[in-house]
């Protein structure tokens, strides 16, 4: 793919502005660990919200395994390659993207910042990065699409409802709002065992937050005799006040929020497990690419090919669902040894994306060398959101792509698409 000067120079201008101090970092640093620490400090008075967003299942061992996997795979650069002009544009499902980086679907962003998902959707559009919306968003499908704008590129992530009527309604709304691809999350048919949330009984959905997709759905709301509403959640989120208002003060609005929250969670994360055969229903009702998120086994990737699924996201939900699981990059390494997966990818029958553990541009390069055509980023942009809203998310997106753009050249590659599947020449596995 031929690079366009405007996009190529965009990332280098960002880099030169940093050194020229024309753009001091809004997050106070470009170091992800310092940004993480600052986000925790900003949220110190709302620590349960911070832990709900950034915590993991059980002992957090899977989250740690994700990072260990990236640390184990080392980059081996090549020298004396002409990488003066570098391209990071790519194409997926026939659509051109400015970079192979995607905003991962993260729910309930309104508990970290007053603007919630609207800030992230605007940042994605401003940076030219595709936005994947979570079904657990604290804003409606339509409001997020509006924030993402007419030129924003967006996909919709589905937590698959129990009832077909509501599923169809969500799919139709997403398509009407300009979401071009559907991401079905497979690993969250029910919420994982997360002690930090259980200790504080911190489940925003039970208090009407993170269910805004449901509250704005006419089919779901009609079930209870209500009209669909597109609401803005309050920040900071204070569940104890809602609980006291509902249980002690008899507040009708608080009682309604808690009832609808329980019912919506019963639709989307109820413990009702789907089968491979159920995917045909989605195929019958979605006109566009379908991507399965949560694949960790080669055999499941191969089943997706048999089902005629357009793409997969190798992901373990950032370690938030299963404790003691394999690092996502380690799982990816095994999946990308499957001849069936490699053949389907080469023929254009399967698009392969990666998620879980991404922190830097070098991480993106490692995932692409392993075989990813695109990479999802999550925790870092949520740190940015907590600290500085839209501007914070923009910094994370810009620094990640700029880091990738620079490091790619230093590794001896001038086109990001040439990185895909170059594990044997670019990466070396070393012991922990």
From TrEMBL:
- Where is the catalytic site? 317
Similarity field? Belongs to the FMN-dependent alpha-hydroxy acid dehydrogenase family.
Q: Which domain of life is it from?
A: Eukaryota
User: Which terms are listed as keywords in the entry?
Assistant: Flavoprotein, FMN, Oxidoreductase
Q: Which cofactor does it need?
A: FMN
Its taxonomic placement starts with: Eukaryota, Fungi, Dikarya, Basidiomycota, Agaricomycotina
The name of this protein is FMN-dependent alpha-hydroxy acid dehydrogenase
Give the InterPro entries listed for this entry: Aldolase_TIM (IPR013785), Alpha-hydoxy_acid_DH_FMN (IPR012133), FMN-dep_DH (IPR000262), FMN_HAD (IPR037396), FMN_hydac_DH_AS (IPR008259)
Please list the GO terms describing molecular function: FMN binding; oxidoreductase activity
Instruction: Write down a Pfam family by its short name.
Output: FMN_dh
Which residues are noted in the entry as FMN-binding? 105-107, 134, 157, 185, 293, 315, 355-359
Q: Which residues belong to any copy of the FMN hydroxy acid dehydrogenase domain? A: 26-429
Q: Which residues bind glyoxylate?
A: 52, 159, 194, 317, 320
State the organism named in the record: Suillus placidus
